[in-house]
Amino acid sequence: MGQPGLSLAGLWLSRAMSRCILEPRPPGKRWLVVGLGNPGMPSTRHSVGMAVLGQLARRLGVAESWARDRRCAADLALASLGDAQLVLLRPRRLMNVNGRSVARAAELFGLTAEEVYLVHDELDKPLGKLALKLGGSARGHNGVRSCISCLNSNAMPRLRVGIGRPTHPDEVQAHVLGRFSPAEQELLPPLLERAADLLLDHIRERSQGPSLGP
């Protein structure tokens, strides 16, 4: 079942996207922020990037503005941050191929890889730890690998959200695809707040800077 008001939001978003794509924009004033995850599995560790994006949408007052865009197979919401515009994106493709959605959205909005933020889970950091990484390899993350392949670049800034690594290698897949435990869920609200703060502060700083570089 679709989200309430999704059709009206979709109509508004389609018109807004048309204006965004056609109108000239100041360089460096538009950013694509992507929450990586698996559609239909919003409460799992692997989809914590989508949870961060949900918190970001609430902070920016666009939590009710998500709309499906079939051109990039994703849910989108547009938000303002000072003079900058943020395009929030939740791919509707599976993690291993969600780079197609990201690359298509970047193309539609005329954005380079440096203007695309990826938010994703990180096995090698404990739950509660955040790190902003400026480009580089996928470090074994299939969603990031797909984005690098489809964008033909590894320059995207990434917010890595720690989910912890289980003791035994055989448990990694079940851990990643599993839901947060009750104890972990208590840690999530402040973690999502800090993640949103880190993203917004970094985007504000770059929006005010003289260039698009990190």
Into which percentage range does the β-strand content fall? 15-25%
Structural class: alpha/beta
Largest sheet: 7 strands, mixed
Principal-axes geometry comes out as globular
Share of helical residues: 25-40%
Structure characteristics:
214 residues; 6 helices; 38% helix; tRNA binding; EC 3.1.1.29; hydrolase; peptidyl-tRNA hydrolase
Helices and strands in order:
Blueprint (H helix, E strand, L loop, with lengths): L5 H17 L7 E6 L12 H12 L7 E3 L4 E8 L2 E8 L7 H10 L7 E7 L7 E5 L7 H10 L5 E6 L9 H6 L4 H27 L6
Parallel strand pairs: 1-4, 1-5, 5-7
Antiparallel strand pairs: 2-3, 3-4, 6-7
Helix pairs in contact: 2-6, 3-4
Structure explained in plain terms:
- The protein has a seven-stranded mixed beta sheet with strand order 2-3-4-1-5-7-6, sandwiched between helices.
- α3 (99-108) packs parallel to α4 (142-151).
- The protein is α/β, with parallel strands linked by helices.
- The protein has helices at residues 6-22, 48-59, 99-108, 142-151, 172-177, 182-208; strands spanning 30-35, 67-69, 74-81, 84-91, 116-122, 130-134, 157-162.
- It contains six helices and seven strands; from the N terminus they run αβαβββαββαβαα.
